[in-house]
Design goal:
By secondary structure, the protein is of the alpha/beta class. The protein has one domain. The chain contains three helices and seven strands; from the N terminus they run βαββββαβαβ. The relative contact order is 0.28. It binds zinc ion.
């Protein structure tokens, strides 16, 4: 008999809506470009209150730590049109991201390394 095909499932994780952008991208390692393309983040380097992001397709740029920036909104609302072909973001990472939800009153605010309250 054939085994039933199982699709890998991820626990739904919740983050606060007003989670800090730096902590969020440090966690999910994805970056939405201005043109709506998701890139994979290779490294994040903190420089004062900015961060230098390097993507897997070797783009480098500085970002500000804002909870309400364009990028933060895109990530929360999953506004993206496509995935960068050069970054080669693995399927599992996208699946994990798509099972991540943002709530106003529930979830981790990522302010410490512990469990959500
Ligand atoms: Zn890319």
């Amino acid at each position: 008999m054939k085994k039933e095909e199982t699709t890998p499932k991820y626990d739904v994780r919740y983050y606060r809506k007003r989670v800090e952008l730096f902590r969020l991208i440090d966690k999910i390692k994805l970056w939405p470009s201005r043109r709506g393309i998701l890139h994979g983040i290779k490294s994040i380097e903190m420089i004062g209150d900015q961060a230098r992001i390097t993507t897997h397709c070797n783009k480098t740029f500085l970002i500000n730590n804002s909870k309400n920036s364009r990028a933060a909104r895109c990530l929360r609302n999953k506004w993206f049109k496509g995935v960068c072909p050069s970054c080669g973001i693995p399927e599992w990472k996208l699946a994990k991201y798509s099972s991540t939800l943002f709530r106003r009153k529930y979830g981790s605010s990522l302010t410490d390394r512990g469990e959500p309250p």
